[in-house]
Amino acid sequence: MTTPDLAVREAAAASPTLEVLAERARSCTACPELVATRTHVVPGAVPEGVRLLVLGEAPGAQEDESGLPFVGKSGRLLDQLLGEVGVSRAQVGVLNTLKCRPPGNRPPTRLETRNCRGWTERQLALAAPQVVVALGLSATRWFLGPTSLAAVRGRLHEQGGYRVLPTYHPSAAIRFGPEGEPRRLLREDLALAAEVSS
User: Fold this and answer.
1) What is the pTM of this model?
2) Mean pLDDT over residues 99-110, rounded?
3) Domain annotation for the chain: domains and CATH numbers
C-alpha cells in the first residue's frame, strides 16, 4: 500500500518543471486535516534562474487566503529587509516546508512535514539555488535535523548539496520589535546570503 508521503514523492519526482509541480501540489490530499481546513495550497514562488531562496515553516492566514507565500506581516518585513540589503523579492525564491496552513497557525506535525517533504525537495532540486536561507527553527531543522537556532545561525552549512544559512523567522523579528536582536541578526544574515549568492 502506498503511503501519503510516498505518493507525494512519486508525484513530485514525476514533475518536470516547477509549474507542473505547483499544479500537482495544489491538488494534494496527503494530510486530511489540512485538506479540510485550507482555503488554498501555497506551493511557493520561484523565479527562473533564482540564486537565493528562502524557506519558511508554513503558510499563515493571509497566505492561505491568497495562495501566495509570505504576503502577510512577516512577508512585508522580509521584503523590506531584502530591499535594505539590495535584493528585490522578485529575485528570490520563496517556499515553506509545508504547503498548507495548519489550523490556528499551530506548528506542523512530524507526519505533515514528512508528507509534504517530497514537494519541497523537488522544488529545491528544480530551482538549484546557490543559497537557501532557512527562516526559523522549523525550516532549520527541516535541513539540519535536531538542533537549536543559536547553535547554527549566521553561518553556511553544506547539507544535501545545498548551502543553507539558518536565521530568525521574520515573525520573531516582529515580536521583538524594530530594535530587537532577531531583526538585526536576520538583516545581517540576509546580507550574507545576498553576498554569497551573487
Assistant:
1) 0.95
2) 95
3) 4-197 (3.40.470.10)
